[in-house]
Design brief:
The complex is a heterodimer of chains A (374) and B (258).
Chain A (H helix, E strand, L loop, with lengths): L6 H32 L6 H19 L15 H31 L8 H16 L6 H22 L8 H22 L7 E2 L8 E5 L2 E4 H23 L1 H11 L1 H6 L4 H27 L1 E2 L3 H16 L4 H22 L4 H15 L15
Helix pairs in contact in A: 1-7, 1-10, 1-11, 1-12, 2-3, 2-6, 2-10, 2-11, 3-4, 3-10, 4-5, 7-8, 7-10, 8-10, 11-12, 11-13, 12-13
Chain B lengths: L3 E12 L2 E12 L3 E5 L6 H8 L7 E6 L2 E2 L5 H7 L1 E3 L12 H10 L6 H6 L2 H21 L14 H14 L4 E5 L7 H16 L3 E5 L3 H7 L2 E6 L2 E6 L1 H6 L1 H8 L7
Parallel strand pairs in B: 3-8, 3-9, 6-7, 7-8
Antiparallel strand pairs in B: 1-2, 1-4, 4-5, 9-10
Classes of the chains: A mainly alpha (374), B alpha/beta (258).
Membrane topology (chain A): Multi-pass membrane protein
Keywords (chain A): Amino-acid transport, Cell inner membrane, Cell membrane, Membrane, Transmembrane, Transmembrane helix, Transport
GO molecular function, one term (chain A): L-isoleucine transmembrane transporter activity
């Protein structure tokens, strides 16, 4: 007999389900906002989350110089040092993810929109040269030099291909997204020091139980996740509703063409949207490593698909929907895995996606980023 | 002789085999209201779209303030000082009236993206100034009491007025109105006429595309008439009223007239 939903487990499941759901929600924001302004599912967003977790790993081990274990114990820190480390790693993750999202938009998407931008062409030319050079030699220095030489002439060709006003068909964006996603994950897998294995992140936070909630233990990391996620989402909503750029984002989401005619610089609005979505994914990445103490090159894949599910569940393009969808999905997964067994966890998440797409494709709260209002 | 603000020189616009505009020349002087009229399908909106940069003309030139507009993007044309409204209302439906106007004002704000993200003091001041200016425009247009109402919930007539306020928010020299009286009853048309005259009194130049002869005749300083993509007449409203070509274009020439 499996342990059925007994009273105590129910609240345990609720607490961890909400924490997991909030992480989904933060990642879902990136899908939702980009969909709002571009009507594009940015499938590479999961890898933006992934590089964020590596941002945390690198900041903890390299910048703060913390080892996985100190004398066989976890490297717990406390007081102001702990706060600084947590904040520092959050900022690192947000910067890495945000920068990753900006580069992604300018190399994988903007050239396809016919914006006549040279940045993407140069980066793509460099990457093409780099990858082609691996056919001949494995020495990284040589590869980089070959790539640097090839970049110039190849960029000229790419600039011609991605010339101004040459809009690619919708499908090209999706293929570009999937390609960028695979390229980022495989680059980390290939060039990371431990390649495809799981990387443990140093556990600096001692996961003490803070208080009891209907008999369920509420650990400090869950509390940090909850506060952090709510704080970030509030900041995002305020930004979107109260600032000039936020207004630009909503205007583009509601009618990009009219916004452009009124003088809104649509490309910079799109860039800011990617930046914000990336920063949210970075915050989620920090919280994920805080709870699970590990990352991997393909950590983004499953989490990305589930966050996408959360975005669709709440109503894609809808900021509050992402929050609702994330929490509903996190809870459904936890309750479901208690009823059917842990191995069914992912199955449940995807059944939720299927059911939503069949019966309410616009999600619980309906589509639209433009409607975002406090 | 007053100064020419916008001039359209021998513009031809072809779509495949269809000639929508055939060698049309127009000019608008500073501070005047030019009415552009013609029957349905005469090329009024095409002419409008060429001026506002939606289409690049097949032949001919468009210049504004003595500088060519050809090859400019639409938002660059807006920045040069040409604002437009749309025949079918294109407000941001889920934004409040004041925010709709602010979107147009924002585009001319000086703060960089980085500054706005960091919320530096200047961007806060600009935010406040932009809101104040938006309220001013709403007051001018007469719908300030609806400032916080979502555009989709405004009455139809107010939506049309809001489009005008939003266009004025981009701080234009030339305001292009595409059938602003569409769907209005006579009383509303009268109010609109007064509003357009008030706008002109503020120093804006107005290009008015209108199907309704009564609106155009009453307030335009000059009128240009298009028919089948050709300009068939241009002059003062009274002259147009009695011009046989114009009457023929609007009423149709009986077959036995020839």
């Amino acid at each position: 007999m499996r342990d059925w939903l007994i009273y105590r487990t129910f609240w345990d499941l609720t607490v961890s389900g909400v924490a997991l759901g909030l992480i989904y929600a933060l990642v879902a924001l990136g899908y939702t906002m980009v969909y709002g302004v571009l009507r594009l599912i940015n499938f590479a967003h999961s890898e933006i989350f992934m590089v964020g977790t590596f941002g945390v790993l690198i900041s903890l081990t390299q910048v703060f110089g913390i080892n996985l274990f100190e004398d066989g114990e976890y490297p717990y820190r406390s007081g102001i040092v702990l706060v600084l480390i947590l904040l520092g790693s959050t900022v690192a993750a947000m910067v890495v993810s945000g920068a990753g999202a900006v580069v992604l938009e300018r190399t994988a998407y903007r050239p396809l929109r016919g914006a006549g931008d040279t940045f993407g062409a140069v980066v793509l030319a460099f990457l093409t040269g780099l990858i082609a050079s691996f056919l001949f030699t494995d020495s990284m220095m040589t590869n980089l030099m070959i790539a640097a030489v090839i970049t110039g002439p190849l960029a000229v060709v790419y600039v011609r291909i991605f010339r101004k006003g040459r809009q690619a068909p919708r499908l090209a964006f999706l293929i570009s997204a999937i390609g960028a996603s695979m390229a980022m994950a495989e680059a980390v897998a290939t060039w990371g020091p431990d390649e495809r294995v799981v990387y443990k992140t140093p556990r600096v936070l001692e996961k003490k139980v803070l208080f009891n909630f209907f008999g369920a233990d509420v650990r400090i990391d869950y509390v940090i996740v909850a506060f952090g996620a709510i704080l970030m989402m509030t900041a995002l909503l305020l930004f979107v509703n109260r600032t000039r750029l936020g207004r630009g984002i909503r205007a583009v989401a509601q009618d990009a063409e009219t916004a452009r005619i009124l003088g809104v610089n649509v490309n910079s609005v799109i860039l800011v949207t990617f930046l914000l979505g990336g920063a949210m994914a970075g915050g989620a990445a920090m919280m994920f490593t805080l709870v699970y103490d590990q990352t991997r090159f393909n950590i983004g894949f499953l989490l990305g698909v589930k966050s996408f599910t959360a975005a669709v569940l709440g109503g894609i393009g809808n900021i509050k929907g992402a929050l609702l969808g994330g929490i509903v999905l996190g809870l459904a997964e936890n309750y479901g895995s208690s009823i059917f067994g842990g191995q069914w966890k992912d199955v449940i998440a995807f059944i939720v996606l299927l059911v939503v797409l069949m019966f309410r494709p616009t999600g619980i709260l309906g589509e639209s980023l433009g409607k975002a209002r406090v | 002789m007053s100064e020419v603000l916008l001039s359209v020189d021998a513009v031809t616009m072809q779509f495949g085999g269809v000639t929508a505009l055939d060698n049309v020349s127009l000019h608008i002087n500073k501070g005047e209201i030019l009415g552009l009229i013609g029957p349905n399908g005469a090329g009024k909106t095409t002419c409008f779209n060429v001026i506002t940069g939606v289409y690049a003309p097949t032949k001919g030139f468009v210049s504004f303030d003595n500088k060519s507009l050809l090859g400019l993007k639409r938002y660059q044309i807006t920045k040069r000082g040409i604002a437009r409204t749309f025949q079918n209302i294109r407000l941001f439906p889920d934004m409040s009236a004041v925010e709709n106007v602010m979107v147009g004002i924002d585009a001319h704000s000086k703060t960089s993206v980085v500054g706005a993200v960091l919320g530096i003091p200047r961007s806060k001041r600009e935010e406040r100034e932009s809101r104040e200016r938006a309220h001013e425009l709403l007051k001018f247009i007469g719908i300030d009491e609806y400032a916080e109402v979502a555009a989709r919930n405004l009455p139809y007539g107010h939506q049309r007025r809001l489009e005008i306020a939003r266009a004025l928010g981009t701080n234009p020299q030339l305001l292009c109105l595409d059938e602003p009286a569409a769907g209005f009853n006579p009383a509303e048309k009268q109010e609109l006429n007064e509003l357009i005259l008030k706008i002109r009194a503020q120093g804006y130049t107005v290009l008015l595309i209108e199907h309704d002869m009564n609106v155009v005749m009453k307030i335009s300083d000059r009128i240009a008439v298009l028919d089948f993509g050709k300009k068939i007449a241009e002059g003062l409203p009274e002259e147009m009223r009695n011009n046989p070509d114009v009457i023929a274009a609007y009423l149709g020439v009986p077959d036995d007239a020839a």
